[in-house]
Amino acid sequence: MKAIIPVAGAGAKLRPHTYTQPKALIPIAGKTILSFIVDQLHEAGITEFVFIVGYLGEKIQEYVMQTYPELRTHFVYQNERQGTGHAIELTKNIVGDDEVFVVLGDTICDYDIKEVLDSPFSMLGIKKVDDPRNFGVASVNEEGFIEQVVEKPAIPKSNMALVGLYKIKESHFLYECLHQLLSQNIKTYGEYNLTDALDCMIKRGAKFKSFKVKSWFDCGKKETLLESNAILLKKFGANIISEHSFKDTIIVPPVSIAPGCNIENSIIGPNVAIGANTTINHSIIRDSIIGSYTNLFEVVLDNSLIGSDASVKGLSRSLNIGDNTEIDFG
């Protein structure tokens, strides 16, 4: 089985951070979004990965090659963003007839991955949501088989949203339906959509069973990214290198602090993730994500997202600052 991870999106809702950093490499709970996905699949036994890259794709490739040298990896460039269906279609020659597990590049979920991989059926991950109109929506029968999937329906038939996890056994069938979408120019909301290809497979007799995810961590925009960071920190606990020594500093867990940080005269936490080689002095930080090589002095941060190589000085409350930024509130 091969894993396919589309990470070609520009991440517009997370700007200014995604001007200089792919969304998949945004830090969360001491790791990157992409690492949560790859680690989960690798630990389940998948060793071959296909990454669909585009915007800042060279950074994704460099990160994967450095972090996961033991994996067999392929990089496919989606130069024009024409939807998830178009992205997956680009992987046809690499996948061949192998089974595939598609995980969207901003999808961190808690689920029984072994149960999914061991199932004799193709599987789609679902979760009940209050308003399914912004998601792919699945209609599921009493046996748990999926009868229909529709992308962002105006009047949803169910409240079961597709979460971005797709195990597909009949990959040749998938690529036939993707080819049909592209050749007949069948688009939804202006894009070739993977949901439409899956519905094509169902209509032509493919069997898809649903599986429910325990948790679905939304990493699409600042507010939900910070919420997900807090939940994941609580779930996995603190991650602070033992040789750290923070002078006159109070740590309120859960907190993740990467190596090389210098923190003095500060209060850190709860729910704070700090990247490597960051310096913090005379500051109070809670419910925030701080990038690497960043300098913070005399700041009070709450529900903030600070990029890498940034510098912030002076009193503040809630910020959303991208990489390579310098701000002085003095």
Strand content: 25-35%
Helices, by number, come to 8
Which stretches are low in confidence, meaning pLDDT under 50 for 5 or more residues running? 10-20, 321-330
The CATH architecture of the largest domain can be named as Alpha-Beta Complex
Count of distinct structural domains: 2
| Largest pleated sheet | 7 strands, mixed
The radius of gyration computed from the alpha-carbon positions, rounded to a whole number of angstroms, is 21 Å
Roughly how much helix do the residues carry, as a percent range? Answer: 10-25%
CATH class label of the largest domain: Alpha Beta
Task: State the fourth-level CATH superfamily of the largest domain.
Answer: Spore Coat Polysaccharide Biosynthesis Protein SpsA, Chain A
What's the overall geometry? Answer: elongated
Spatial order of the strands forming the largest sheet? 5-4-1-6-11-8-12
Span between termini: 56 Å
Question: What name does the CATH topology of the largest domain carry?
Answer: Spore Coat Polysaccharide Biosynthesis Protein SpsA, Chain A
Q: Based on helices, strands and strand pairing, what is the structural class?
A: alpha/beta
Blueprint (SSEs and pairs):
Layout: E1 2-7, E2 27-28, E3 31-32, H1 33-43, E4 48-53, H2 57-67, E5 72-77, H3 84-89, H4 92-95, E6 100-103, E7 107-110, H5 113-118, E8 122-128, E9 136-140, E10 146-151, E11 160-168, H6 171-183, H7 194-203, E12 208-212, E13 215-218, H8 222-236, E14 239-240, E15 250-251, E16 255-257, E17 262-264, E18 267-268, E19 272-274, E20 279-281, E21 284-286, E22 288-290, E23 295-297, E24 300-302, E25 305-306, E26 311-313, E27 320-321, E28 326-328
Parallel strand pairs: 1-4, 1-6, 4-5, 8-12, 14-16, 15-18, 16-19, 17-20, 18-21, 19-22, 20-23, 21-24, 22-25, 23-26, 25-27, 26-28
Antiparallel strand pairs: 2-3, 6-11, 7-13, 8-11, 9-10
Organism: Parasediminibacterium paludis
Pfam families: NTP_transferase
Protein name: Sugar phosphate nucleotidyltransferase
